[in-house]
């Protein structure tokens, strides 16, 4: 990498760490930047997964107050996160590179759609609660299964993984968004760690990219956790959509 590219990757790591701590979809920042440096899609994905671990952990620590009283819930969901993250990582390497290049634009497009529809999803959740539909303390089997499938997606390609987690938990759990966000950060950290641990033995990394994203995302995770409550959701959502659209155009082109 050139010095300018290294600076760009580090800055992307900071942005991704902050976004993941607040709302998710940080991969939509780092992934196109890594592609722009000349990395292949698979190498960019595995390097990104490993590099974002410090940011995920940093974000989870930053939201530790919101995790109070949710230990049992987190442990239950963590089982699906471990299994799902591993399955997703296996799929990434088991499928041919051509399949990945065809699938990724679809995943990015779906991720952007989820981000754009988040206000509508939240409204439907509020309407459902207003109609008297109470949420189970742990969400029951449907939520556990949904989170496990989301973890498979996260192990394969983590863009908008956090949005999927929050959307699912919001449908089944009667909790404030910030508490759901805290659980999301823990699950994302688990999936990234499991996938990266698997990739260490079977995939090729760009260690410069890993180090730069790791340093940047650790810093960004703390920044995001401290300032996330002050940001307008509309502004964050708009930023994600713009960056993700640029990524989608680059992937398709």
Task: Explain what the structure shows.
- With 253 residues, the protein is mainly alpha-helical.
- Helix content is 81%, strand content 0%.
- The protein is built from 11 helices and no strands.
- The chain has helices at residues 3-22, 27-36, 41-51, 53-62, 71-94, 97-130, 140-156, 161-172, 177-202, 207-227, 233-252.
- α3 crosses α10.
- It is globular and about 55 Å long.
- The mean pLDDT is 83.
- Residues in helix, %: over 70%
Number of strands: 0
What is the beta-strand fraction? under 5%
Compute the number of helices: 11
Largest sheet: none
Spell out the helices and strands N to C: HHHHHHHHHHH
Q: Helices and strands: which structural class?
A: mainly alpha
What Rg is obtained from the alpha carbons, in whole angstroms? Answer: 17 Å
Distance between the first and last residues' Cα: 22 Å
Mean pLDDT: 83
Name the overall outline.
globular
Low-confidence segments, ≥5 residues, pLDDT <50?
A: none
Keywords: Cell membrane, Membrane, Transmembrane, Transmembrane helix, Transport
Protein name: Probable membrane transporter protein
Transmembrane segments: 34-57, 77-96, 102-122, 143-166, 186-213, 234-252
Pfam families: TauE (PF01925)
